[in-house]
Amino acid sequence: MSRTTLAEPPAEVVTAAPVTPRRPRSTRRYRRLISPVVLVLGWELAARTGLLAPEKLPAPSDVLATGWRLTRDGTLLVHLLDSLTRAGAGLLIGGVLALVLGTVAGLLRLGDDLVDPPVQMARMLPHLGLVPLLIIWVGIGESLKISLVALGAFFPIYFNTYAGIRDIDERLVEAARTCGLGQAARLRHVVLPGALPSLFLGLRLAIGAAWLSLVVGEQVNAQTGIGFLMMEAREFSQTDVVVLGLLVYALLGLISDLALRVLERRMLTWRRGLRAT
Amino acid sequence: MASRAAGHLTGTTPVLTAHAVHRAFGPTVVLAGVDLTIARGEVVALLGGSGSGKSTLLRILAGLDGEASGDIVVHGTAAVVFQEHRLLPWKRVAPNVGLGLSGADTAGRIQRALAEVGLAERDRAWPAELSGGQAQRVAVARALVREPDLLLLDEPFGALDALTRLRMQVLLRRLRAEHSFAALLVTHDVEEALLLADRILLLDEGRIAADLPVDLAPTRTPDDPAFGALRRHLLDRLGVPTT
User: In the prediction, which pLDDT does B9 show?
Assistant: First the structure.
C-alpha cells in the first residue's frame, strides 16, 4: 500500500517549480532594433522637412536612390572592384610577410633576437603618418595605396602569429614528442592548430586596419576606387555620393568581419566544446 | 646530455637500465647519480617526497630533458602518461589516441585501445567534453595503443578525485595483467605504490635510498596485515609519523 502512494507523482513539487518570466530572445532582438530605426526615420524626416540642408546631409532615401543609380550604371561596381583589389593585394603582401616573420620570430630564438626588435620599434610609428614619406618613396600611384594597406595589415598579423606560437602549451609539445612526432609533425599537429585562434584574431584586426588604410590611401590622388568617388563628389558637393561611399566602406567592414567569423567557427569547432564546459 | 639509446628487447634483458643519472638546476643538485634497472614486465614504483626529483628522473628517462647526464638504455618502446592528460584540445579523442601512430589498421588499433579503457563510445568527443577521469583514460589509451614495453607514469592519477583514482588503479592492474608491460610509476601515494608495484624505490636526496620488493599477492588489498606493515615501514622511511 505504501508503495503505491510513493509511486504517485508528488503534485506539490510540480506547482513549486519556479516560474520565471523570461522574455524570448526574438523579442529582445526586435527591441534592439527600435532605436536605430527611430534614428534613421528621424534623419529622413529632418531632411524631408528641410531641417537638414541637403548639401550638408541628404535624406537616407536619397542616398539609397543614388546607390541604386550608381549600381545600375555600373560606376559603383567599377570603383568597388578597384578598392577591393587594392585591399586584397595589400592584405596579401602584408599578411604573408607578417606570417613568415612572425613564425620565424615565434619559433626560433635567433629569429626572435633578429626580427622582433626592429618590428617592435616600427610598431610605434603610426603607419598612416607615413603617407608623406611613402609618397616620396613610391609616388602617388597604386603602390602607395597597396603599401599603406600592407603596412596596416602587417602589424596585427605579425604580433598575433608571434603570440599564438609563443602561447602554445609546452606540455602539449612534450606529449607529442613522447608520441614519436618529429619536428615537422609537431608543427602540423600542435603548433599550427594551437596558434590558429590567435591567427584568426590577427586577421580580423588586419582586415580592419586594411580598410582604414584604404580610406586614407584613396584620398591621395586616386583615379578610381570608393575613396576617389567620395573625393570627386565632395568637389561637386554631391553629399549623397559621399555618404554612400561611407556606407559602402562600413558594409565592406561588416561583410568581411562576418565572413571571417563564419570561417573561424568552422575551423575552430573544438573551441565551442571548450566554452560549453 | 644523457645518452639515451634504444635497443632490441630479447630474452631476459632488462627493459630499462639507467646508470649515473645526474641532473642539477643551477647550484641545486636534484639527481646525484641514480642507478636504475627495470626488468621485463616489472612494475616499479618510484616514491619520494615532493621535490625529491622523481618527476625529473622520469622526464629524463622519457628523453624529455636535454640537460641531464648519465647513460640510459631503453630496450624496446616506451610511452608516457603524465599527471595531466595532455590531450590536444583541437583533435577529437580518436585522433588524439592515434597521434603519430603509423602502420596497418590504425583505426582498429585506436578503437581497441579505447575499448580497453572503457571509452569506445567516446571516440568522436572533443577532449574538453570529457571528465577528468575520462580524459586520463584516453591518455592511458594513447600510451597503450603503441604497445609499449615500458610505460612511464608520472603521477598519472594525482589530479583525480579519490574515487576515480581507485578506479584507475584497478584499470591499470587489469591492463597490466593483460599486456604484461613493464612500468615505472612515479607517485607520492604509498598505498598506490603498494597496490600496483612489484618493487618500490625510494628517492631521497637525489639517490635511490631504498629498493624494496613488494611481496604481496597479486590481488592485494589495504586490509592485508602485510600491506599495513609495509605501508608503515615506507611512511617511516619517508619521514611521516604513523602513530
Answer: 53
Which residues does residue B199 pair with via DSSP β-bridges, in sequence order?
B44, B213
Neighbouring residues of A28: CB distance < 8 A, sequence distance ≥ 6: none
Q: Which residue of B has its CA nearest to A196?
A: B90
pLDDT of residue A158: 97
Q: Does residue A240 carry a pLDDT above 80?
A: yes
Cα–Cα dist B201/A106, whole Å: 41
Phi-psi region of A225 (alpha: psi -120 to 50; beta: other; left: phi over 0): left
Is B86 in Cβ contact with A185 (below 8 Å)?
no
Flag if A273 and B88 touch (Cβ within 8 Å): no
DSSP B82: -
Q: Which cell numbers in the block locate residue B61? A: 628517462
What mean pLDDT is predicted for residues B94-113?
Answer: 93
User: According to the model, what pLDDT value does residue A85 have?
Assistant: 95
What residues contact B124, with CB distance under 8 A and at least 6 apart?
B92, B93, B94
- Name which of B53, B203, B72, B79 is nearest B141 in CA terms: B79
Interface test with A, best of B81, B90, B144, B151 (most A CBs within 10 A): B90
Sheet holding B182-187, edge to edge: B78-81, B150-154, B182-187, B43-47, B199-204, B207-213
pLDDT for residue A213 is more than 50: yes
- Residue B38 to residue B33: CA distance in whole angstroms: 17
**Would the pTM count as exceeding 0.90?**
no
The predicted pLDDT at position A4 comes to: 41
